[in-house]
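quick one, two chains, predict together pls
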Amino acid sequence: DTAVSQTPKYLVTQMGNDKSIKCEQNLGHDTMYWYKQDSKKFLKIMFSYNNKELIINETVPNRFSPKSPDKAHLNLHINSLELGDSAVYFCASSQNPPYEQYFGPGTRLTVT
Amino acid sequence: RKEVEQDPGPFNVPEGATVAFNCTYSNSASQSFFWYRQDCRKEPKLLMSVYSSGNEDGRFTAQLNRASQYISLLIRDSKLSDSATYLCVVNSGGFKTIFGAGTRLFVKA
């Protein structure tokens, strides 16, 4: 029983392309997050949604657009991919208030 | 000053050793504290929450010092399987959670 799942697990694409990453949680949590972990392994929050509403929007290029169709799903769409977007993107969820977070397995994005 | 700072690593210890990690946070209004573990090429996983009174889970002990804005994690009787990166995590209220840069631990036979 996968608690937080992400697809795809690996994504290799060329600069300038548009790609999406999907995330689903079956934990019944109200809050979902997107994190970026770069080559230096630093984990940084990008977005957070609570009950489908955007509540955290860190300094992220507007090429990144999250979308939450319902409480259990949070997708991330990236336009005009750049080399610097190469990283591992983690989805996570938590109950309210932000108790411990449960992470998906990550999507390893490589932009060539 | 970074919002969450951890001991620089890596820590290289023999099996059976006791090792301690420290973490400081800058926001005195921080409310929730956690230690996560991240294995190589895997997602972070909750190791333990940190309570004001301190808490223990088997070989792991976490402590919080609000006055000094300091969190610690003690691992006793280290196992090879404890090799990982340990992330200090702080929530300052609301929905924003800050992860430290992590401390890498290598336990050797």
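Residues 5 and 18 of chain B are 21 Å apart (CA to CA).
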